[in-house]
Specification:
Distance between the termini: 67 Å
Structural class: alpha/beta
Number of strands: 12
Strand order of the largest sheet: 5-2-1-6-7-8
Helix content: 40-55%
Oligomer: single chain
Strand content: 5-15%
Shape: globular
Largest sheet: 6 strands, parallel
CATH architecture of the largest domain: 3-Layer(aba) Sandwich
Number of helices: 17
CATH topology of the largest domain: Rossmann fold
Length: about 375
């Protein structure tokens, strides 16, 4: 029996606790690729690790059949693994995709021209992340891409699982919530779908990606910023505060209105989805903090991200945005000396006027229907 092989870039908590765990359950032998030498060494020294699902319905999943490669030290080994893989996935963050692309390209060069195409999926919190990765690979290949393009198929995905900051001394074990969602566009595979238990394959992924980003990501970040402003440390405790819960609920109700208008989701289905999301955030077994979830506020306040993106579309449709503006106001108050973007946010608010900050950070133009409202919120925080 032929062993199915997967290469996963990014052996962090999400890579091990979500993608790696599901690939294991799908029967894949996994090669993790990462640049963190201690993590790579720890994985190679272990025969297994445990994914602890905490909360109602949780279970322990023991992951075996894996190895790890330090991509900084042994890029040839990574390329060889990609060349032999059935599936390649990554969970590295959207800005790191360009650094993964050379390894995948090197693997495609080594791959037999008559082999079954490797299935490539970027599992990131970003719209069209696999398309972005594909673009980086194609750009690097240049004129060579025409001959290599048949050696891989690229499918966008939408992923959702809360993987909080891990308890001290956890080692390579990972604590996660029981809930997960992995939606994958099925068209690129031509019927030859990867074996991923619990994943669902859809014809059009865009609505599912936006539903996740504009509900889960918006709601999670809103909870973090509103909780931080209220002086609350844990995400679950923030939503135990009735004021914070009401403000978060208002923000994601507005994003649901956009999703219903844009994609035709039924309002009752969206209401049930929001309720599920809020229950997940309230899980007291997840040791997640507002500081961890709130990090990188400048990225989260950018034009197509979780606040400005849906708020802009709501304003364009004449829909309400007050809940989202309240979350944006809290995000602008976020302060964390250990987070580079939070420090930069404070510097920009002290050095730029409201118009300059709004244009630079949010990407909104002065003629946009959301611009004036956001500028007025920003003005409360500028020097």
């Amino acid at each position: 029996m032929t062993v199915k092989k997967a290469v996963h870039f990014g052996a962090g908590n999400i890579g091990r606790g979500f993608v790696g765990a599901l690939l294991h359950e799908g029967g894949y032998e996994i090669t993790f690729s990462d640049v963190a030498a201690p993590l790579v060494d720890a994985l190679n020294a272990a025969d297994s690790y445990v994914v602890h699902e905490v909360g109602d319905g949780g279970r322990d999943v023991t992951v075996t059949g894996f190895s790890a490669i330090n991509s900084a030290e042994d890029p040839d080994a990574v390329a060889a693994a990609v060349a032999a893989a059935d599936v390649v996935t990554c969970a590295v963050g959207p800005t790191v995709l360009k650094f993964v692309a050379p390894s995948i390209l090197a693997g495609l060069r080594e791959r037999s021209a008559d082999s079954t195409p490797v299935k490539v999926m970027a599992c990131e919190n970003a719209i069209g992340a696999t398309d972005t990765l594909h673009g980086h690979i194609e750009a690097l290949a240049g004129g060579e891409w025409e001959s290599l393009s048949t050696r891989a198929v690229f499918a966008n995905t939408a992923v959702d699982r809360i993987v909080p900051g891990q308890p001290e001394g956890a080692g390579i074990d990972v604590t996660v919530e029981p809930f997960f969602e992995w939606a994958i566009e099925q068209g690129p595979f031509g019927g030859d779908l990867p074996t991923i238990p619990g994943a669902h394959f859809v014809d059009e992924l865009g609505p599912y990606i936006e539903r996740k980003l504009f509900t889960v990501n918006t709601g999670h970040a809103a909870t973090a910023y509103l909780g931080a402003r209220a002086g609350i440390e844990k995400i679950s405790d923030a939503l135990a505060d009735s004021v914070v819960e009401r403000q978060v609920a208002a923000a994601i109700a507005e994003t649901s209105a956009v999703l219903a208008a844009k994609h035709g989701f039924a309002e009752e289905d969206l209401a049930e989805y929001r309720a599920t999301i809020l229950r997940r955030f309230k899980n007291p077994a997840l040791p997640d903090t507002v500081q961890r979830v709130g990090r990188q506020p400048l990225r989260k306040l950018s034009r197509h991200e979780r606040f400005i993106g849906p708020a802009a579309e709501a304003a364009e449709r004449g829909l309400g945005v007050m809940g989202l503006l309240t979350a944006i106001d809290a995000a602008l108050a976020f302060d964390d000396a250990d987070d580079a973007q939070a420090v930069e946010l404070r510097e920009k608010l002290s050095s730029l006027d409201a118009d300059a900050f709004t244009a630079e950070v949010t990407g909104l133009t002065a003629d946009h229907p959301l611009y004036a409202s956001v500028r007025d919120v920003v003005a409360r925080h500028t020097a």
